Amino acid sequence: MKITYCKDYQNMSQKAAQIIFDEVMHKKDLLFCAATGNSPTGMYAEMAKNKAAFSEMRVVKMDEWGIIPLSYPDSCESYLEKHLLGPLEIPSDRYTSFDTASEKVQEECIRMQKFIQESGPFDICILGLGKNGHIAFNEPADSLEPDFHKAILAPSTIQHDPALSQGEEPAYGLCVGMRDILQSKKIIFLVTGKGKEAAIRQIMEGKITTQCPASFLWLHPNTDCLIVE
Ligand SMILES: O=C1O[C@H](COP(=O)(O)O)[C@@H](O)[C@H](O)[C@H]1O
């Protein structure tokens, strides 16, 4: 993992977007696995300044909250529409998504895994860091899931979106698994935001542990980790 310290969020966003511009020059129809949250928002805005570069890029939604409708403004779907798909004018035939309604969970996980097997690996995977060291919704645990799966969310993840704690079911999410993250040709790991100091310290120890899923990025040969100082 190559670590680059950035002087501020804007600087991180610009550097990350530049990496993506360089990649899309070589492969216009690259398969892009898109994270949501605050970390990539500035990078998507930078990408939108040169949207012509993305006229063939294909996008896959990385994760989604399980107990809020896709139409809800805080869903990952709405976020991607607002910050990535809309501004870059990515049409629906170049966007692969999934529904998290409870009766569909099993079939959606199977469908997404089949899609990744047939169309993958991802050319670029964007990741943010959870306060507890998670990536996507791969939460700290004794073992990690390789495939696209339903994940029971940790309390710190649920608190990320207060609407989630109002649900009656245990909050869950659907997300891409660790194998497909680690098989991505390139990973851009954006580390910014309050409350992540302990997770950053754990990553920087350089040890691999399922209790800090982000630590597995040390095993990946082409990860750019951009950290706001
Ligand atoms: O819970 C989550 O948090 C991380 C980080 O979010 P951010 O708002 O600080 O960028 C996010 O990358 C992840 O997808 C989500 O599960």
TrEMBL record:
It is an enzyme of class 3 (hydrolase). Keywords: Hydrolase. It comes from the Bacteria. InterPro entries: Glc/Gal-6P_isomerase, Glucosamine6P_isomerase, NagB/RpiA_transferase-like. The keyword Hydrolase applies. Its EC number is 3.1.1.31. GO terms for molecular function: 6-phosphogluconolactonase activity. Residues 13-217 form the Glucosamine/galactosamine-6-phosphate isomerase domain. Pfam families: Glucosamine_iso. This is 6-phosphogluconolactonase.
